[in-house]
Specification:
The chain has 278 residues and is of the alpha/beta class. It has one domain: Alpha/Beta hydrolase fold, catalytic domain (Rossmann fold). It has seven helices and ten strands. The protein is globular, with a radius of gyration of 17 Å.
């Protein structure tokens, strides 16, 4: 799989509180044996030539094609800027089948009765790995110790990538990851919870990359009982999982990482985890 960049907007500079960074929205062309697909990605990086460590930040998804078409280019901007301030190059790929990237949606979990959460996660993990492969060709990016982070389906996809043990990835951070949440729009109603736990066990059976799991008590997509089962299954299969269940945040804990005022809560957990897994 090869990826070539086509810059479609100019680089910009933004001055914030003790922080300057360059931002590029970059189109990556995917040359593989399927209809041409592209990834549109946002790149945020510290000033200077680097090389800097790389962090890939992955968004969630929905089974609604109309909602996927409206996905923004960059979610979790405050979180992304925090990581830039820690010295990371942050790349947020907009996966195929979403937003301006468009194209085919490869990560469908299929119908609820036959939900294949493992295949859906691995399909999205392919987009993540391709983004890593391209970014490691850039002179301002360090060639090892990549951190992969995601929220919701992006967290699940990051865990799927961990199961493949890419040699350049040092750690995975999962914010409220999973698939099949709020089936039919109902809170705490997962499409196939047992399938999700089984898929977590399967991923954990091969994953040897350290993973950090952050979940919320008031997450109505993947509530405490389900997220604890997933983490337990991962660990039982000999995967490494540091699991945190945080107190309720806001009206819906599933969107915890979206909020700037959540950073003081999760940042110490993330810093300690990364320090323990350099």
């Amino acid at each position: 799989m090869s990826w070539a960049p086509q810059v479609i907007t100019d680089s910009g500079q933004w001055a914030g509180n003790r922080l300057r960074f360059a931002r590029d929205d970059t189109r990556l062309r995917n040359d593989i044996e399927r209809p041409l697909s592209v990834l549109l990605s946002t790149i945020l990086r510290p000033p200077g030539d680097g090389p800097f460590p790389l962090l890939i930040m992955n968004h969630g998804t929905t089974m609604s094609a109309m909602q996927r078409a409206d996905f923004p280019m960059l979610e979790f901007e405050a979180a992304a800027l925090w990581f830039v301030n820690q010295g990371f190059v942050v790349v947020a790929p907009q996966r195929t089948g979403h937003g301006e990237t468009g194209g085919l949606f490869f990560e469908s979990q299929r119908l609820c009765e036959v939900a294949n959460f493992r295949a859906a996660g691995l399909a999205a993990a392919g987009n993540i790995q391709a983004t890593i492969n391209y970014m490691l060709t850039q002179s301002f990016v360090r060639q090892s110790n990549v951190v992969v982070l995601g929220q919701s389906a992006g967290g699940w996809s990051s865990l799927a990538l961990a199961s493949l043990n890419p040699p350049t990835v040092r750690a995975v951070i999962d914010f409220v990851g999973g698939r099949g949440g709020r089936f039919e729009g109902k809170p705490n109603n997962n499409c196939q919870p047992d399938h999700l736990v089984e898929a977590a066990e399967k991923f954990g059976s091969t994953a040897r990359i350290p993973t950090l799991w952050i979940y919320l008590e008031n997450d109505t997509f993947f509530g405490p009982a389900l997220s604890k089962r997933m983490a337990a299954a991962w660990r039982a299969a000999r995967g490494s999982a540091e699991y945190h269940l945080l107190p309720p945040f806001g009206e819906e804990g599933h969107f915890f990482i979206d909020y700037p005022d959540a950073i003081p809560i999760w940042a110490p957990i993330v810093q300690k985890f990364l320090a323990e897994h350099p």
